[in-house]
Amino acid sequence: MTTIEQIFDLFNNHGGSLYFGEQVTETEHALQAAHLARQAGASNEVIAGALLHDIGHLMHGLGEDIAHHGVDGKHEDVGAEWLEGKFPQVVIDCVRLHVAAKRYLTATDPGYLEGLSVASVDSLRLQGGPFSAEEVAEFERTEPNFATAIQVRRWDDEAKVVGLDVPAVESYRDVLEAVLIA
Ligand SMILES: [Fe+2]
Ligand SMILES: [Fe+2]
After folding, report:
1. Which ligand gives the minimal distance to the CA of 159?
2. Which of 50, 65, 86, 121 is in Cβ range 3.0-4.6 Å of 33 for a Cys bridge?
3. Ligand 2 center to 48 CA (angstroms)
4. Contacts of 100 (CB under 8 A, 6+ apart)
5. Burial 143-179 (b: 16+ CB within 10 A, else e)
6. Of 153, 180, 166, which Cα lies nearest the Cα of 39?
7. In the chain, domain spans
């Protein structure tokens, strides 16, 4: 299977579980995030990053309620590792940094926390809580793609609308082909 066929297979055959304590499935969540990016006129890299940000959830087999078991599955690292060598760094960073971006936003945007879902606030604690001032500064200094990752995070947080009709994963074939390295 090509990388793109593997991605389609993951969403079509492994993305049907509810997303992390939400009322949308993993696949619905990813498609909504990608759709928000596409509607906002984001680049192909960033649309791909939004689509793939939680791909690690579809691979690690830990189930969808790991927050409630007190385990941090590190799905951002699982996903980023799988994408390594297949996609440009900015795509990988959207995936790798999407949890850090939440920790960053809870520290820097006063209204951000109240906009998060209950499950997302729950998992925040397991993920280390809001960044300290030092961590905020370090994130900005050491991550060249931090602003892009934060933008993707905002779409991630919005992408939990029950019953929203959005284009299927196959509609992202061109986007993925345009950015794919191997
Ligand atoms: Fe996630
Ligand atoms: Fe997500």
Report:
1. 2
2. 50
3. 13
4. 76, 131, 139, 143, 149
5. bebbebbbbbbbbbbebbeeeeebeebeebeebbeeb
6. 166
7. 18-179
Give per-residue pLDDT as tens, 145-155: 999 999 999 99
- The string of pLDDT tens digits covering residues 119-152 is 889 889 989 999 999 999 999 999 999 999 999 9
d(CA 27, CA 8): 10
Q: What is the DSSP code string of 61-123?
A: ---S-GGGGT----HHHHHHHHHTTTS-HHHHHHHHTHHHHHHHHHHH-TTHHHHS-HHHHHH
Expressed in angstroms and rounded, the spacing between residue 174 Cα and the centre of ligand 2 is 22
Query: 137 CA to middle of ligand 2, Å?
Result: 24
Q: Is the dihedral of CA 110, 72, 18, 43 positive or negative?
A: positive
* CA of 19 relative to ligand 1 center, distance in Å: 9
What does pLDDT average to over the chain? Answer: 91
Domain 18-179 part of CATH 1.10.3210.10:
yes
Nearest of 39, 43, 44, 19 to residue 30 by alpha carbon: 19
